User: Fold this.
Amino acid sequence: MSNGDKPRLHPLNSPSGQRGFNSRLRHSNQAYLRGRERDSEHPPISRHIAFVLLEHFSMMAFTGAVDAIVTANLLSRTPLYRFQSIGLEGGSVLSDLGISIAVDGELKTLDATGLDMLIVCGGYRSNLNPPRSTLERLRAIAHKGTTMGALWNGSSVLALAGLLDGYACTVHPDSRASLEERFPRVKLLPIPFVIDRDRISSAGANSALGMMLAVIRHQHGDDVVRGIEEILACDRGPDDIPDRPMPVLEGSAALPDALRAILKLMESNIEEPLSIDDLAHYAQVSRRQIDRLFHRYMKTTPSRYYLELRITRARRLLLQTSAPITSIAIACGFTGAPHFSRCYRDFFGVSPSQARAAQRL
Assistant:
């Protein structure tokens, strides 16, 4: 082709364009497509998944999880998954986008016989304190051996039902402080998604897809997941498609080890803050070196950063729970409510009580 010539483009809906698209998928998925030929001899087990949609659930998180299982079904002669959407009451549930989704039934009448997985889908404005009957129903379903999962902040509902005690999970950052404070027996991890035995959880919209791909990989192998990734990433170049999800790093890899150790110490000691001298001792660096690290990488002083960390945690507890302001102040390392109120007003321009009143309105 000469430099002046333009490549011929075939629209996807034209016969030539469709043949080219199918050819690329077939070439990329040869291993799994060969496996499909054996499906008729040994059909895979079709697993049943129920998505419980809370009011104002995250539409993007829900569709990301569903996209993975629907695409998995496209790669098999027989469906690998059956799924249904469930509401707490009524025939439809309002999403965070203001779009109502018709559901297939209600949680109280859900037939859990043969149910393999139940996933609670939360969202930014979802009510995380459902009625006792909902919690009892979730416990009854889990008692049957069903894998219980959560999207966005659905982990808070599972934790309230006592279904995450002794398990690791994740949750959206806006709900992290509340879950840590209310459920100390739950091991909360600051990563996109967590799979711990028969409990799965994801913290946001993008990680919902990653979580379901990890589940599918465990149940059906790498070839299926590679096929799903090829289809869902069909609008990207081959160099842009990763063979595996990118690893999750704790903190930034660009930060010095000493600074990352200090940041972790701060995050782990909110209620009883460590002094700068203590931080220097545990991190095995000098106080002067700590000052230099924070000035260079964090653009602030260590004391200011530590205070911001605690006041941010306090704000989340203030707006996400009904705990007394004095209790929140003590839980976040302040000497009392007056000290906390002064710091809070300095940061946010209003008192803690004013912020909570505005949140309720």
Observations:
- The first helix runs from residue 15 to 28.
- Residues 112 and 140 are 9 Å apart (CA to CA).
